[in-house]
Design brief:
It is a single chain. With 292 residues, the chain is mainly beta. It has three helices and ten strands, in the order ααβββββββββαβ. It has a ten-stranded antiparallel barrel with strand order 1-2-3-4-5-6-7-8-9-10. A hairpin with a 2-residue loop joins strand 8 and strand 9.
Length: 292
């Protein structure tokens, strides 16, 4: 609960910071007695629309690179026959980076993330039965986005792509319990792979030429595999998942930019087969974009 409270406070400060920056970083008012007022208005509107560090100038290119860290806190539940069989709290982080290339309204991005997560689990059937789960996760993601520049302050887009996530889990029971036949070991390992094409809709909402936000919702369909204890058992499954991202960006100086926000991702490997993988957390990014 403490970490959840920290996330709530974190997001509250994010919203407040964006609002404050919007108030104090407004562009200068156009002098109405200047003969080129309409041209000035057009230029300022264009600057606002193109302020997002992932958006290229009309008929021009951009290339960008950023480092990121995604901190995750999850309430972990394990279900069996429609009831919670075990529960715990999972925490950890995924550092990584993103490369973007864009031309006009089109942007392609590749992201790589790798992190470790820990979870202390308590079982419902036996209150004194516990385990420790360690999860090493790797994520590759490539997306292509098409932006519709419709107004200074609201620009929708569509995104398609592919997400490839692997989870290498090791779970160790307490000294008084084991996983049973055939080897009666306290340790079990599961390697899960999720191969997920995705489609999403979003919008870029600039406040001025310095700051703005992006919001995005995605649907993912995952083909998944699970290998237990180095091949002792295997499963395959598939299912529809979802993701949502809210990002605030800030153009610090020239091409230097910072981004911060929250992200939720649910990969569905089939309820009775591979199982689900979901993460919820806050992230921060620092990057540089060159537009030419």
């Amino acid at each position: 609960m403490k970490r959840r409270s920290i996330l709530i406070v974190f997001c509250t400060f994010l919203v407040f910071g964006l609002f404050a920056a919007n108030v104090f970083a407004q562009d200068k008012q156009i002098t109405l007695d200047q003969p080129v007022v309409q041209e000035q208005t057009r230029v300022i509107v264009e600057e606002i629309v193109l302020s997002d560090p992932t958006v290229a100038q009309p008929k021009k290119w951009l290339i960008g690179l950023s480092g990121e860290y995604w901190y995750v806190y999850n309430q972990y539940n394990r279900w069996e026959n429609g009831v919670i069989a075990a529960e715990g709290s999972m925490t950890g982080g995924m550092p990584g980076g993103t490369i973007i290339v864009g031309y006009d309204a089109f942007t392609v991005a590749y992201s790589y993330r790798k992190g470790d997560f820990n979870c202390d689990i308590t079982y419902a059937d036996l209150p004194n039965k516990t385990s420790v789960l360690k999860s090493n996760q790797t994520e590759h993601e490539i997306t292509a986005r098409w932006l519709f520049k419709v107004s200074p302050h609201f620009n929708p887009y569509v995104v398609v792509g592919y997400n490839h996530t692997t989870k290498d889990d090791e779970e160790t029971l307490d000294a008084a319990h084991d996983w049973g036949a055939p080897n009666f070991s306290r340790v079990t390992k599961n390697l899960r792979t999720y191969k997920s094409p995705l489609f999403g809709l979003g919008a870029i909402i600039p406040f001025n030429k310095y700051i703005g936000v992006r919001v995005e919702g995605r649907g993912l369909y995952s083909w998944s595999d699970r290998v237990q204890d180095d091949g002792a058992a295997t499963w395959s499954g598939s299912g529809v998942g979802a993701a949502a991202v809210a990002t605030g960006y800030w153009n610090i100086w020239k091409g230097l930019n910072a981004q911060i926000g929250g992200k939720y991702q649910w990969l569905n490997g089939g309820y009775y087969n591979v199982g689900n993988s979901w993460k919820l957390g806050a992230f921060a990014m620092l990057g540089y974009t060159h537009k030419f």
